[in-house]
TrEMBL record, chains A, B:
SUPFAM superfamilies: PLP-dependent transferases
Similarity field: Belongs to the class-V pyridoxal-phosphate-dependent aminotransferase family.
Essential cofactor(s): pyridoxal 5'-phosphate
Record protein name field: alanine--glyoxylate transaminase
Class of the enzyme per the UniProt entry, highest EC level: transferase
Modified sites of kind N6-(pyridoxal phosphate)lysine: K198
Keyword set, alphabetical order: Aminotransferase, Pyridoxal phosphate, Transferase
């Protein structure tokens, strides 16, 4: 029995439903942020992140900072790039535009390589772009929350290492870490930024970053100091290293409650093989995508190899808009999200299938949502037909 | 009966002890950050902040952003100052040095006006400084968490308005909002930055800012765009205005759980006259300060008019260091903090007396802490005497 009161199942692409124990950790009694018990909790949390990212290189550096996923962009732009640097932003939707904005804020020149909606830049296009100009780093949105498009990180990273070996590979994993595999070391990734509230299954409020030894070296050899203060690794790196070494340290006050919740969910995640977790997400995703196809609906990500495993962006039947459908889903106890990609926001809805809704065998969120989607769309169609008479 | 398990009373100058209801709000079930229920909660929270700051000017703009108090500095440096601007930083301890660092990060020239440890810059010194150079803004730490020094905001603001009327008045209220009076409108303040985890009584993880209509106008007439992305008011202002108007809006995902907790504590705070709240803090502070004097100990803030009402920084007897005393207090069930001011960190301890520990009549935290302090110091003295033999 859940200790949470009855409520509609939150099946948007983040925040997601939370495990009872994780939520209870949010109510942890007050502790000093520099006292031994919390230092231990924070240190263990950082160490568990290494497992989640599958990195065993001691030079890799995790960061957990109060903020949202967006703060990860500032960390990249202000620590890994310098004013005047060129960076290449692979564009799969809303989030690349914003990441590019962030770079420009810090005086970094962002070149976007855009794919048509629902697709991702192809490797040969990336290769061509990398040969045309020297880029300090390349960013890729692993799963674009606005389109449900999955990018292929391993082959992309291999390509970058071959064609432009000095270019750092930065992955926006806000909607992928915890539900899509990331082999940080094996794939040669330099930085992944993510947030607490998606497939990691912790309430929102934490910016989570993993940086490679190579990224840290690049940071340490900057010509100018970091261009953000709150997001500066110069300020945070000693703090993270001290916490992980069990030593109290202070730059800005962390959120003990959120860190406790992150500790709880990471303990759960790392207690089973990661491969099982990713397989569970693939299986649930296949079920959702089959149901969507059975309803005669199409995904924004048309090609199967482009489709994320933690969410599905679904085109509505012609003439139907999110406000026609979302309240009918809510009535049936499930919350989906509307469109986010500016050009087509009124034409589609988003279904998040991540975390406990997928991995907890006592939950039937996904099955209920599939039924609700079918019934809700049917009801909306009937209403549309009636109003068209 | 508290629903929290037995634990040592956290009496550091933030985070502080939390009310049961506030902590329970941290476990709120997952909600969409753009769904009607949460939009209402967030909107009401912003409106209650106006009450806490005693501002009725509709042009005042509250901000609540995931982050720590430090993010407020970035917001000031990146939105209210421009690269090349001069700003005057009144120095009462550790936090002015860091705020100045933050300004320099954003290319803003910070001039510090320093006071001796335990004191604050005097009005005639401030007047002289303001007459020497044109400053875009002046910052003052209302209560310096490193020294327990209270600054006098009303007369300072009056002086700035008289001597340099174009200079914006920025108050670092991280350790003052909720326990020291701030009449935002009446005193003519332009910006107060604070955090959730001190006298506001909400767990850490939120940066809270109130900006005046004048500050917003100054921001809107910038020559260059804001120099932070995550901390940019250009990105956040429409979001805050929409939430307060009951309209969903998205820039970066807020933390619904933390905002619920903030909503709960602000509901409690604004349900009684603010004057009573400030009086309760003054009363508890007087009790603590009398006990400190009775023990023959001195405060860092020697002059009564310099002494904060939410914390006390206490010099230890000569030869005694925080590690001699803090474990003896912990053994007695109370947690104090060590020194933070770099030059004298080993010579003093800090006692926070804010929030429910002061306002909840069912709690005896302060009385217990006073007894523990007396007994702990005595025990430490005996140990020192023994080892000196």
């Amino acid at each position: 029995m859940s200790s949470q009161p009855p409520h509609p199942a939150l099946l948007i692409p983040g925040p997601i439903e939370f495990d009872d124990q994780v939520l209870q950790s949010m109510s942890h009694f007050s502790e000093s942020h520099v006292g031994a018990p919390f230092v231990k909790t924070f240190g263990e949390t950082l160490t568990m992140l290494r497992k989640l990212f599958q990195t065993e290189d001691p030079a890799s550096q995790p960061f957990v900072i109060s903020g949202s996923g967006t703060l990860g962009w500032d960390q990249v732009a202000a620590n890994l790039a310098e004013p005047g640097d060129d960076v290449l932003v692979l564009h799969t939707g809303y989030f690349a535009d914003s990441f590019a904005d962030c770079f420009e804020t810090y005086g970094v020149k962002a070149t976007q390589l855009k794919a048509p909606i629902g697709d991702r830049p192809q490797l040969d296009e990336v290769e061509k772009a990398l040969k045309e100009k020297k880029y300090k780093l390349l960013t890729v949105t692993h799963v674009d929350t606005s389109t449900g498009v999955l990018s292929e990180i391993e082959s992309l990273s291999k390509l970058v290492h071959k064609v432009s070996p000095e270019t750092l590979i930065v992955v926006d994993g806000v909607c992928s870490v915890g539900c899509e595999e990331i082999q940080f070391d094996n794939w040669g990734i330099d930085c992944v930024i993510t947030a607490s509230q998606k497939a990691i299954g912790c309430p929102a409020g934490l910016s989570i970053v993993m940086a490679s030894g190579r990224a840290i070296k690049s940071f340490q050899s900057r010509k100018v100091p970091p261009t953000s203060y709150f997001g500066s690794w110069k300020n945070w790196m000693p703090i993270m290293q001290n916490y992980e070494a069990g030593k109290p340290s202070y730059f800005a006050t962390p959120s003990p409650q959120l860190v406790h919740a992150l500790h709880t969910t990471l303990t759960q995640i790392t207690s089973v093989p990661l491969a099982d977790r990713f397989a569970a997400h693939r299986k649930a995703s296949q079920k959702v995508k089959k149901a969507v196809a059975d309803l005669g609906l199409e995904q924004l990500a048309a090609k199967p190899e482009n489709q994320a495993n933690g969410m599905t962006a679904i085109y509505l039947p012609k003439g139907m808009t999110p406000p026609d459908v979302l309240p009918k889903l809510m009535k049936r106890g499930v919350v989906f999200a509307g469109g986010l990609h500016k050009q087509i926001a009124t034409q589609y809805i988003r279904f998040g299938h991540m975390g406990v809704s997928v991995t907890d065998p006592n939950r039937d969120d996904i099955d209920r949502a599939i039924v609700a989607l079918k019934d809700g769309i049917t009801e909306a169609q009937q209403a549309t037909d009636l109003s068209a008479r």
